[in-house]
Amino acid sequence: MTTTNETNTLDIHFRGEKPKRLSFTQKAALHHRMIKILKGFNCEHSQSAANKLQATLKGMTGIKYTGWEACRKELAFEKAKFQLEKEGVL
Q1: Would 4 be classed as within a structural domain?
Q2: Percent of the chain clearing pLDDT 70 (strictly above)
Q3: Number of domains into which the chain is organized
Q4: Is the residue at 18 inside a domain?
Q5: What is the Cα 79 distance to its own chain's centre?
Q6: 76 Cβ contact list (under 8 Å, min separation 6)
Q7: CB–CB of 73/49 below 8 Å?
Q8: What residues make up the domain containing 57?
Q9: Is the pTM value of this prediction over 0.90?
């Protein structure tokens, strides 16, 4: 049984902060870094997610990610965001 309280209703994605808007070049750098990270995992779900992300960059629409692909993509996003913030790109 789970109970809800006020702390569980917080937006966990932004942790109380508004998301920072990224420029086009920053978004492109983030996506390219995500693809590089995903290809480095050597896992079929990561490779598939990298291919779908690459297709999105080339203008394809309506791409759906499976559960594992979405998980890998989210992990790559966090890693890429951290790396690019550390490098001063974001």
Answers
A1: no
A2: 79
A3: 1
A4: no
A5: 8
A6: 34, 35, 37, 38, 46, 49
A7: yes
A8: 23-87
A9: no
